């Protein structure tokens, strides 16, 4: 009898050990497959880089950083996105510098089901523009010809149109059909919607307040069950492909503009997923240390918002927190003739409206007019840096080195005070 018991114990231990080894092998296989595919993303990036940039070690390291930022976005979604228990997650920004984010915009995404019923509530703010787009789900297919072409907005909802109570709070229902007994604010959920994107655009970072928005699904259990192994496996299996598609999506965009003849000149920009009511212009730039670009446009008489930003050669927005690489309608100075003039140069010209490329001698310039009576495309003129004073109007607003440093310090502080995460 003792021998039988001993044999049974040994057999059970053997089974448990074997099961453990199999489980470990499966985990290692899944993880190994992910890391192998992730290594291929680097190879795809090297092949995707424009030929003029491919052998530049600086650009190569910036491309590596771009992959990491795409990874941060996609990993965050894998860890926290859930259409049954959604939450608005950071989508683009300084640390997730993909798809060329606007310096004045805070972007938040939440995955949802187009069959669900959702409630959005929170505290109102004072930013001029806060809109939510209903987007189709991004496909997992290779889609990096020249941008995220599958990004299609099905509808836009404007928070500024909601009812605000005496405590500054809002409460809105999002569903396919309005419930018969619902008396409050309601937004129609469009068929095919896979995720929501909130954009909050602030011109005056110091004084404008962002809205605070929470979301919950009402037609599923309030508590969240343990995520199944199969679901976790599925998320990991697709992760590397999504990282690669996101990272590679726009790395040729600047070179495409150069090849199309838009070097140091601007064109109308058409982009998937663009904000409702917004007009974009863009162009590639290239300058030397003794040159400057003067970008000028007549500001429309009526305009809700406008801005201009710079990107690097792989279409990442140049650091706008620690550099004045962007200017909007509050930050810039318009000359007495109603024309706004920006100076793009590698050295600080002492001009208030300096666009600082932070050492990037080439890249892209992009601007937008939002809710404006007109949509002019600015003129671009290359001049010698030494000739700027004679080219610009005599009353052009100027700053000292001390004033520039103080402005950057204020800029950095006010940006960090916005709710970014």
Structure notes:
With 421 residues, the protein is an alpha+beta fold. The chain is 28% helix and 26% strand. It contains 6 helices and 18 strands. The protein has a 5-stranded antiparallel sheet, covered by helices on one side. It has a 5-stranded antiparallel sheet with strand order 10-11-17-13-14. Strands 7-6-3-9 form a 4-stranded mixed sheet, with no helix packed on it. The protein is globular.
Structural class: alpha+beta
Secondary structure tally: strands: 18
Mean pLDDT value = 91
Low confidence ranges = 1-24, 142-146
Task: Report Rg.
Answer: 25 Å
- Architecture of the largest domain, according to CATH? Sandwich
The CATH class designation of the largest domain is Mainly Beta
Comma- or semicolon-separated keywords:
alpha+beta; Jelly Rolls; 421 residues; disordered N terminus; 26% strand; 2 domains; 18 strands
